[in-house]
Specification:
The chain has 269 residues and is α/β, with parallel strands linked by helices. It has a single domain, classed as Rossmann fold. It is built from 7 helices and 10 strands. Strands 1, 2, 3, 4, 5, 6, 7, 8, 9 and 10 form a 10-stranded mixed sheet that branches. GO terms for molecular function: S-adenosylmethionine-dependent methyltransferase activity. It comes from Falsiruegeria mediterranea M17. This is 27-O-demethylrifamycin SV methyltransferase. It is an enzyme of class 2 (transferase).
């Protein structure tokens, strides 16, 4: 009953905000969304966005001329940073389950930028879209095969259950061109993560098992999810291509570095 009541409250609040964005000037901002709408995790909107794009440049070879897709684009934090860095020399498509984020991004950021587009995807998520109609494991990306040079997702798979996660990995690789790059952040569960959680060094406990993944909060299962590193590697091995680059994040020891684990996959030719 508590979970259903919470879901109703969240859905009502999100719907109200979306209507206010679409039909009133209440949230009109040009350089960045108002702070009250910035739900894209901690940190300064501009600083974090610039850091994410810098990571894509250094780790995923993001460069002018790339066609890019962002999974879980939120309220255009990375799109703003991408435009600051590359302007219209790249193309950008983003999709998200939070309708108000898409409404705001299209109205106040993308309206005068034809190379940048935002799409609402009505998927279920216990954190961000509890009234969604499509299970993520059944959602096929609304883009043709081999459309992008780079697909990326920051702090998205940390809020996604195991079947949904693997479906999204497959879909990301589908829409990538040969030699394309897929960069994402995640919490990966392995022996080191287990030691860190048991010792209390980690930022999360991940006490609850869900298939081969781990949950931090059983009441809100999408709040924080850690996925099995070994299962991910085995899954990617079946798809061919190079072994992924994986960089452990600071969440394991509460240290001041890239908080989430980083993964870079290069699609086979």
């Amino acid at each position: 009953m508590v979970s259903k009541f919470r879901a109703l409250k969240v859905a009502t609040a999100l719907r109200t905000v979306d209507l206010l964005i679409r039909y009133t000037p209440l949230f009109a901002h040009k350089d960045a969304p108002p702070n009250v709408l910035n739900l894209a995790g901690g940190g300064d909107f501009t600083t974090v966005g610039d850091a994410n794009i810098a990571a894509l440049v250094s780790l995923a070879d993001l460069s002018a001329g790339d066609d890019t897709l962002e999974i879980g684009c939120g309220i255009a934090r990375n799109a703003y940073a991408l435009h600051r860095k590359f302007g219209d020399s790249v193309t950008y498509a983003g999709f998200d389950v939070m309708k108000f984020c898409i409404s705001w991004s299209n109205k106040y950021f993308g309206a005068d930028k034809p190379n940048y587009s935002f799409r609402y995807s009505n998927m279920t998520n216990s954190m961000y879209n509890p009234s969604g109609e499509i299970a993520p494991s059944e959602y096929d990306f609304e883009y043709p095969d081999a459309s992008f040079d780079l697909v990326f997702a920051t702090s998205v798979f940390t809020h996604m259950q195991e079947p949904d996660f693997y479906h999204f990995v497959n879909e990301a690789l589908r829409v990538l061109r040969p030699n394309g790059r897929f960069y994402f952040t995640a919490f990966l569960w392995d022996d080191d993560a287990e030691r860190a959680t048991k010792s209390g060094e980690a930022a999360f406990s991940f006490k609850y098992q869900a298939q081969d993944s781990r949950l931090d909060n059983r009441e809100v299962p999408d709040a924080a999810v850690a996925h099995s590193r070994s299962k991910l590697l085995a899954h990617l091995d079946t798809l061919g291509g190079q072994p992924p680059l994986i960089i452990n994040g600071g969440w394991r020891r509460k240290i001041n570095k890239q908080f989430q684990d980083c993964v870079l996959i290069r699609k086979a030719q």
